[in-house]
Design brief:
The structure holds two protein chains of two kinds. Chain A is α/β, with parallel strands linked by helices. Chain A has helices at about 1-5, 55-65, 95-110, 135-150, 150-170, 170-175, 180-185, 195-200, 205-210, 240-250, 255-270, 290-310, 310-315, 330-340, 365-380, 395-405, 410-425, 435-445, 465-470; strands at about 80-85, 120-125, 275-280, 320-325, 360. The longest helix of chain B is centred in the middle third of the chain and has 23 residues, at about 175-195. In chain B, the strands form six sheets. In chain B, strands 4-6-5 form a three-stranded antiparallel beta sheet. Chain B has a three-stranded antiparallel beta sheet with strand order 7-9-8, with helices on one face. A three-stranded antiparallel beta sheet of chain B has the order 10-15-11. Classes of the chains: A alpha/beta, B alpha+beta.
Chain lengths: ~475, ~425
Amino acid sequence: MSKLISKASSTINQIPSGRFEKFNLSENPFPLHPMVNKDSDQKKTNGSIYEKEIRHAEYQKVITNFIKIPQSDPNHLRLGFLVDSSYIGRGNGKSAFFVNLLREINKEFAIDLSEGKNKCFSIHFSPEPSGNTKTFKRFVDLFFQSIIKTDIIDYALAMLRIDAFIKLKGDKILKKYGDENKLIDSLNNNDWYSSDDFYSFGLTKGDLHKEMFKNPFLDQIDDAFPLMSNKKILTKIVNQRDFEDHYYNLKKENEKLEFVFNDLVSMFLAAGFNGSYVLIDDFERIPEFQSGIQRKDFITQLRTILYDGPYLNAKLGFYNFVFALHAGVPRLILDAWSLAGLEQRVSLNPTYENPKHIILFDKINEGHVELLLAKYLKEFRITDSEPEKLNLYPFTQSAAKEIGIIMEFNASKILQFSCNLLDFAIDKSYPIIDEKVVAEFSKQSTYKIDGDKKEQDISNTESLNLMEKANENNE
Amino acid sequence: MASLFENMTIDSKLGSIKKFYFFDYFYIFLKSVSIYNERQKIFDNFKVLKDEHKLAESRFKKFVSIDREVAGVKLVRYKYTFNEVLEESLLYKLINVENDKISLTEKGDLILNIYNPRFPDEFYYSIFVLMEQELHGFYQMVKYCYQANKNGLLIFPMYSPMKLDMRRGEIKTNGDMVRYIRKLTTKLQDDLIHFIFISRNLTEARNNIIKRLIENDLLGEDLNEAFNHQKYNVILKRLRDFWINYFLKEIYQIPLSLSFFDIWCYRGKQLGIINITEFYYNFDGRIVYPTSIVSPNVSNSDFKNIFKYKTGEFLFIHDPNQDKIQERFSRVIYDSYIDLRVHYNSYFVNIADLRDIVCYKLKISNKIFQDLLEKLYLLNIKGLTTIRISLEADRLPEETKAMYQKRDPIVIEGSFKNIIAIDLKK
């Protein structure tokens, strides 16, 4: 019976403390399995422990070449690439970079970052693993799902309604609602419009919507578009859920494309956005599983929605895509890219130096390793007497350097190694972690490569003698 | 049994092979003949298919090939290849030629129908059988290799001035160029001893080539005179060809010119009979070795008989039982991976480099390597191996902006992979 009522002493959210107190840490700050999942509530893995300094140059390039260029400039970049140029495999921090860029943009919708030139939101997603995202239709589905996840439609709807509100009644409503989230919820909630709160403004739903539909951008939208039902009086207030239902009821691919790249764009424009940054991680998951024809089709459709199709998005360049490309991907898609005519527009293999649309993502360096370790350590310090100083304790600077070298400056591997190394130092009761401890630990694990081994060349490489083997009976 | 055939000899016609590398040329030619009869139309179609199949004139396939307009020198080269394929097809009686009309023979039609783009090997082997019946070239090539060195390895080292610590800028006078040639000769002499235990004095040969360069106005006689840098690349190419030819004829006793030798090697490579690589990670130059033997019989079941000669001998290719060799393969691949990892100080290494080492150690073809790696990779995913393998489609720095596919691509589970990392499970 006891197992019915007894509980484990540690729950998922509680981690036994004490073990790392010796190093002034509440727990082991490093993730054992470094990865980025922006939806996780664990700060070790949701990308929130992020040292901006490490990717400062790449970040600045995005800001200068993408975000600070007014969306109204017909030459603004609609497509860019974040290309891994480190050649050290995965785990170089591209996802963490994207997740933080997403957060930075959405904090003030890039008004601050663009110095007032743009009001853009950002969305971020990865194609599904194992080849489920082979078609453009599936890609658009994911794209729309991530719009939903960002709650940006609710935001836009609230922006439209609030704009009408202010036009009719001044900024009364803003004064009444200090909390932005509560205001958005209220504006998109049908019940709120029959509450005393709403009546106190001396306004009807009909008045509000009449005002809202004066917005010229909304004139161009198809009547089937969910928001359009609010043109009629006595209809339920439309919110993001209705958009979701509507989208999933669209069966034909071109209806979906019209919806996402035409009508939705008009609505965002009406709401006051003038663009959007779409960050697509792990792009290789798409072409890796595609056949040559699928690849070409996909890229041709991409070109259509971006540049020359009959969509509002193609006319304005509302959505700006940034693809994270693993280093081998350009070669994988180069043929299809040329065949679809994109190479001449957005070259994957430019013949000139420092192209604006390509952000190279290089290996991190020794200084970055220190920054990375210090950032994680800081997050889990019990007391931090000098929070401004770079504090590596219990690691020494030379240990950080050594870790970087052994782990080939791959961010994920550095974090994982440090996680195990810290555990090791606690077990051995070492007061600090210097290069000797690193050496001792790395010798114990398979991370160590035998550097003293004499290099083999063809002369001393043991090679099978086929003539001899042919005479050996192996039955 | 062998005694019955003792007096029979095989007359190999290595020089009758035509000058193109890929077996696919037979396919695109026969295919074109199956559609058109007129020579010009066949050629036009041949050009289109040649681009579609990314077939280049050299021993490497092209990466990008959108040459719709072929003219000038290129057209001459295309025509040359076309004629070569035509003649070889005629030799094997795959086509009939009457005036300017060309048609498939019954045999040609039969062979063409064997072609399956997903599994072209069967087609290659059908052509191979015709080649061997007519020319007996592989018979002789394999014998040459084992006669030259008992484990079959032939090396053709080559070092640019840079590799011998002489920068191009340092070559200012004719004397400097001669100094490079001397240095190169010493290095080649050392390599012969080091790699294949052959001691040879190359001084005379060296003096010969210097003399020839002077006679051909490539190098000035006066050693103090300034060196003409316009001739730099020509001289390097002459030296390369000279030494490869020298190694072939004088050291390995193979009476073949470099171009014929190359064609036999690269065709043999497509069949898994001979392996050749110019990119062995710590060797400058090319290495050649057979992945097959010529013998009247074998006691070992890891050899596949692919051709019977009238002497009673067979050509056997080394085709190990994949289940039995798996464990050894994983040990060899791991050891070789560690060598590369130490050499490049990099966690991920180029799979083609790894393939060169493993194929050499196990004397297997590139194709068998790929099959074994794929099998091992799948076992690894299921957790049934002692090593962990990660394969990626990455691009290594030195491979950017490549025009030609200099190394066979590696396809695992239907997608291209070019870097690999291996870990031992704890």
